[in-house]
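Appendix B: complex inputs.
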Amino acid sequence: MKKYDKLVVNAIGRTVPTVINGEPAVPFMGVGKHRPNGVKYAPPIPTCIDYPDDGNKTLASLSEALKKCGLKDGMTISTHHHLRDGDLVSNTIFDIAHEMGVKDLVWFPSASFPCNEPLIKYLEDGTINRIEGSMNGPLGKFTSKGGMKGCAVLRSHGGRVQAIQDGEVHVDIAVIAAPVADPFGNANALSGKSACGILGYSLADYMYADKVIVVTDNLIPFPCMPMQVQGNYVDYVVVVDHIGIPEKIVSGTTEVTKSPDRLLLAEWTARFCDEAGLLHEGCSMQSGAGGTSLAVGVYLDQILKSRGEKARFAFGGSTKYMVQMLEGGTLDYILDAQAFDLEAVRSARENDRHIDLSVFQAYNFHSKGNYTSMTDIMILGATEIDVNFNGNVVTHSDGLLLHGIGGWQNCLHAKTVIVPIPLFRDRIPVLVDQVTTVCGPGEMIDVIVTERGIAINPLRTDLIEKMKNSSLPIKTIQQLKAEAEAICGVPEKVEFEDEIVAVIKWVDGTIIDSVRKVK
Amino acid sequence: MEQTKTVTIGNKGKGVRSDCQISLELLNSGGITIELVSKVNALYGKSIRKGVEEILEFFEIKNAKVVIDDSGALPFVVAARLEAAVKKLIKTDKEFLFPFLGQNNYQTEKDKNRISRLYLPGNTPSLMINAGIHHPDGIILDLEDAVAPDKKFEAGFLVRNALRNLDFYGAERMVRINQVPQGLKDLDFIVPHNVNLLLIPKCESAEQIHLVNKRIDEIKATCKITGNIWLMPIIESALGVIKAYEVATAAENVVALAIGLEDYTADLGVRRTAEATESFFARSMVVNACKAAGIQAIDSVFSDVADMDGLKQNVLRSKALGFDGMGCIHPRQIKVLHDNFAPDDVEIAKAKKIVNAFMEAKEKGLGVVSLGTKMIDAPVVKRAQKTINLAISTGKISKNWREEDNEKI
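Resulting structure:
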């Protein structure tokens, strides 16, 4: 089977395959142009009489569970990434598969981490054919160098759910690592030594997979409440010593950046939100857990507090800073798909205004509306932005695939998307003529905040009008790029091999760009 | 007779950014070979190689091996490192200079605001690149205490190139030279490249100032440059404190005295405390000498960069003693300095009343200024005008405050 075939140029001018790993694929047609029809995919019908009357679904080992699930060549195995870099379960699945001599598996994680580096040997020996998910660190590098047998497919968090629901990805076995579970398979992430707070990214996997295994290191008697994972979807429960390394699952504490340059970005971003009228009583926001985003949150909080105003909701990933807003009276609700630090885990456990949220509500293309498009202020990062405001989050300027998409594409649907980024990082340009990989179309990115000025997308005439008398340094994106080039020099054009090693899916399942092998 | 010679310049390794390490080996044959390891190889590899070849050709080096470990150094940094390496090995008066950056071509006024001046180590490029965007009143490239003795040689080239090619974004362009007489040699790297102000460490006599000015004049004459170079001597010893007035009045181009409390307290043999009672005399003495000489008094740096509240208290004490500004060692300190050296609302309101009374008296042709039943002396008006000027330049009030206040009424 060819990795990919039949190249075409899509609506954003990128050359992409229309056959990927033997399956037909639709090229990107423009934002909001693709509408699949038919009915949603459905998993096979189970029957409760096939399950133990006493509700005890425990098995002695993960190996036994995988065998009972019928693990065989070519299957798709899904996992969630809530244990982050402390995950001890994902790699074990493939150790077992390797021992069984199973080949050509597809790993469908919601994200990978540097801890998954040992899987490279299984990608090399054919145990795993490819990864379809978000790729980070060493796996991304391995993929960029052409090491993967199949063509990697990168999807956003929402894109995973879309792909599951419209049948593009058929999950054979979902393995759900759970910090606490009962023998029936009800589970959550709120307590136990591996507590990670929330399991928001596992919902579609366990609802739609043929077989579901819950793996826990903290089995408690029925009932395990609340049911973040509902046991009636679960086939088997396995107890292991450790599902993760606690200090690598959640950071003890996330911290705002100490870099003066990044603090300046954060301060300007907050001032921009304020001056453009985006920050007001009842507004809503999302910012990530990176040092700069956290600092933006802190400044937004200060402005709200100084005016006695309150935001209505903020999306997670949650951190202690968001919890401070929730508890300090400047925020009504946290709607949360993942918790980043121990304070966030505590809040998720204790505070009934800290809500466990699945990707269905916020990000999914096949939901009847998304919370994300209702959000006023969205703070995002990027590895590159180009003069047409297109954004890249997966590759570096030298072409290496080093990050996953996460929820980034989905978040672009918010009312105002602001990207605080340095103009260059150690001479590596961030603002470029054309992004190495298009992950998000420029029409959805509204404002770029750099340490040398702020550029507003010409499409946002309303923001340009509001900011015309601002004391902030508002410039055009071309001016900013010229400043970067005056300092760093005009970068040389990076050359790639022709071979495509990965494709980037847009939120609707179409192919927005291809990633080529690095030389 | 002929022998191979190798030298290594610059920095590499964990935590090093925007810099490079260059090893240069002069050979007798074989032409130029360049080994480049760089995180920006895909984007700038060709231009780095080309730049290196150009510089070697400029210095007429035909056979050499160059090994570069680059962590994203900008072209002026690579050039400084390579030139330093070349000059360790061969004797030449030639200097490899990129064209002078147009936006750096400005002069400063003798009495301009010098509330904040940001110290940058003279051999650490990563801290220089974004310094200007934080808008301190002055940026100091430090050749003295912030550069290790074995790095002083290469720092000279880096500071020279930074003066030419690093955008200062309008900040006063300052260099702290080494202690005189060693520091006189630094001047060759600095004076020809539009430096606005020199800080002279450990000053104890007018003679040191005269030596510096003599050398400045010689270089200016040779390079045919005009334009002012201001001096800010730093008082850092018991003797310096006693001689403060002599130093302050040593020359017309002395615009301020700064005090350095680390060295001063060491000289006294006491511990430097947060309350700073041990340096009360010295600080008062320096302020008094400056005011007597009609120049600015600048306080020592506050070294705990995490303690913004402590910094604020320190600034308020400093302002109360009569200082006009302070040194910074971190960009986040700048705003605290500007906010707290700036006049507060009460001071501004009072100054506005006095200046208004003065303007009204002038408009009416009255010789005597009075506010209510009180007569106001000329020095009081002058101080009020100074407060207003500072309030304008720190953004506390508008330049057109009189018109705007009248409109409100």
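The radius of gyration of chain A is 23 Å.
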